[in-house]
Amino acid sequence: MSEAPRAERVWDPFVRVFHWSLVTCVVLNQWVLEEGDPPHEWAGYTAAGLVGLRVLWGFIGPRHARFADFWPTPQRLREHLAALGRGEHPHTPGHNPLGALMMLALMGLVLLLGFTGWLQGTDMFWGNEAVQELHEGLAEALLWLAGLHAAAALVMGRLERTRLVKAMVTGVKERY
């Protein structure tokens, strides 16, 4: 196995702006904006729109933004988990298979939140308690997974001796 480079450009500007914009939408909707008010709705629609653009970018963007580069296939997941079980931390320029799985889960939750939020504004589901509870449950799941995602980035960055958080700002994944 070849030695991983000390620094490599991984995440392009679109991916980085997408990531921090999505974080901003989630933070605003969870802790700043009032539920059901128009700014809350528009932050939610913006988040869903960002995910839609990211999905498109996953097919047309540069190498490490493309789903083909990191899609968490069963084989990739098995190999990655086996390596972790052996105490190894294989170098992956972009998302490792577990990170990819988390990214897809987070994006799926954002889309479901956008959908259930939209449903609450329709005549058919206006005031529907089940849809409201589903929306709130999805928001809670998103927060838990986002927290796990952030913790995993810190832990894996430490284990892999990689500045993962800095890479999401600069686009360059550095080893130390």
Summarize the structure in short.
This protein is mainly alpha-helical.
Walk me through this protein's architecture.
Strands 1-2 form a two-stranded antiparallel sheet. The longest helix has 32 residues, at 129-160. Helix 1 runs antiparallel to helix 2 and helix 5 (97-119) packs antiparallel against helix 6. The protein has one domain (16-154): Fumarate Reductase Cytochrome B subunit (Up-down Bundle). The chain has helices at residues 13-32, 38-60, 67-70, 74-85, 97-119, 129-160, 164-170; strands spanning 7-9, 172-174. It has seven helices and two strands, in the order βαααααααβ. By secondary structure, the protein is mainly alpha-helical.
Task: Label this structure with key terms.
single chain; 176 residues; mainly alpha; Fumarate Reductase Cytochrome B subunit; 7 helices; 2 strands
SSE succession: EHHHHHHHE
The 3D shape can be described as elongated
Biggest beta-sheet profile: 2 strands, antiparallel
Low-confidence stretches: none
CATH architecture: Up-down Bundle
**Number of E-state strands:** 2
Q: What is the structural class?
A: mainly alpha
| Rg (C-alpha, Å) | 18 Å
Membrane topology: Multi-pass membrane protein
GO biological process, one term: respiratory electron transport chain
GO molecular function: electron transfer activity; heme binding
Pfam families: Ni_hydr_CYTB
Helices, strands, pairings?
Blueprint: E1 7-9, H1 13-32, H2 38-60, H3 67-70, H4 74-85, H5 97-119, H6 129-160, H7 164-170, E2 172-174
Antiparallel strand pairs: 1-2
GO molecular function, one term: electron transfer activity
Domain Cytochrome b561 bacterial/Ni-hydrogenase: 10-171
Membrane topology: Multi-pass membrane protein
